[in-house]
Amino acid sequence: MTATAQPEAPAPPSPKKGRIGSVEVLAGLLVLLVVFRNPLASLISDPRLQTWTTVFVSVLVQAVPFLVFGVVLSAVIAVFVPRSFWAKALPRHPALAVPTAGLAGVVLPGCECGSVPIAGSLIRRGVTPAAALAFLLAAPAINPIVLTATAVAFPRNPEMVVGRGVASLVVAVAMGWLWLRLGKAEWIKLPHRPDLDGMSRAQAFWAAVRHDTMHAGGFLVLGAAAAATINVLVPERWLNALAGNHLLSILALAALAVLLSICSEADAFVAASLSQFSLTSRLVFLVVGPMVDLKLISMQAGVFGRRFAVRFAPATFVAAIVVGAGFGAVLL
Amino acid sequence: MNRQAQAVIMLLFGGAILRASLGDTYLRYVKEGLRPFLIGAGVLLVAAAVMTLWYELRSRRAEEHDDGHGHHHEPRVGWLLLLPVLGLLLVAPPALGSYAAGQAGSVLTAQNADSDYPPLPDGEPVDVGLLDYASRAVFDAGRSLDGRTLRLTGFITPGPGGEPTLARMVLSCCAADGRPIKVGLAGDVPAGVAPDTWVQVTGTWAGKVAKDPVNDAEVPYLQVTGWQEITPPKQQYE
After folding, report:
1. Cα-flanking dihedrals φ and ψ of residue B117, to 5°?
2. pLDDT tens per residue, range B11-24
């Protein structure tokens, strides 16, 4: 869409003062956008493109409060909570710290976009990565808001709420323990954050907020664009062909949860409306969605590094399917 | 990207969120309940932008050092935040309409069947939501609808055979999970109404039910007696 914005590339050779900085590029871009506003608007009059834009904007608008909340909380952790606090709050032994951190996720109502920067901040402050990852997976999946939404969406199947809560917690803790056994510290590469030492507390706080907003926010935009594309391109009738087969329906809904990237507060309603699918496959949908989806993978790659994301996301995906299907077979 | 540019982008992003949530635009994308949180997030983004600029100016005055390139990897991915700014301020896409309604199956499932359906309020005609009409018609066998004149508001979307169907999108969180609720129209229906036209339809319970080919959900019909095109309401979702 912004293909008109060429002039950013040629950074003039070297003259000392007349350098084109990013502010100038930004100003130029904005002028171009305002000038070409009408052609741009008519460009998206196609219904598909229009639906894409609506879905893209709405995923972002929905996520913004959670993103900002998560970023502010992670800046508070980075600046105001002393390192010694975590040593006291979590059990010394990492294997015990994992379930504690997972349970801590239960009390924090939040969406997945907020928990990524928070988990990053926890690792920076010396929390063992395994515990931070258990928190990362548990927080969006099993907080009170999400469980209430699930109960409302499935008024006749209270066992869905139980299944979702327990299965999600099991996956989160299992992934934490798995990290303890197999994880390598060098897979996690936290982005360089400006040095916060030597700043006043207020300055450090705002510097952390700025950095994380730009960083996590940018990856959120990528994820939202991907989710909107899937939303427009994959018509629902393709799914019906798969609903009849047990195994296929589980895999189909697990994949759909990853691709749609719906926020965890809403996915229960979507699951309820996929009524042609079995309850077990819908439980898998609810367990996978808050833990692995396009926007999360994008944000995890940004916050923890690509080498982390390519290992962690598929492993979580498999664990969530296995545990979700197992609980579904027993409970539903 | 240097810090001033980041501050400008945050300012624009926060400003766009504030503008959408202080007006009615946000209703096209999310539920009404999110509004206070959107305003809070917008204010925080603007505050972060202002504080960043302030510290930048102050440190520049204090040190006069060559800021420029020396400094470390500022997140380049942040440029992407211009896209939602563009989307919200310049384009402001409309609420989901008939294209999205055609893509997905009607949202009516046994899950939203209630145990009791209280009598409709007084008034002739009485305004009924599409989801309410459909669940009363399908799960309560139309008992509470029988003998009443009803008025339904929605947009037109082509049905499986191209015939006009009344629809409305139902949101549970944001437009990404928006799904249509569909009501078939029987009787005196004008032909050739463009999709996405908003109409107010008066009629009675038809007692006829079809299946949505997309997901096999039941689509009840309304016997149409009156028909009026209207401008789209402020809250287009149900």
Report:
1. -120, 100
2. 999 999 999 999 99
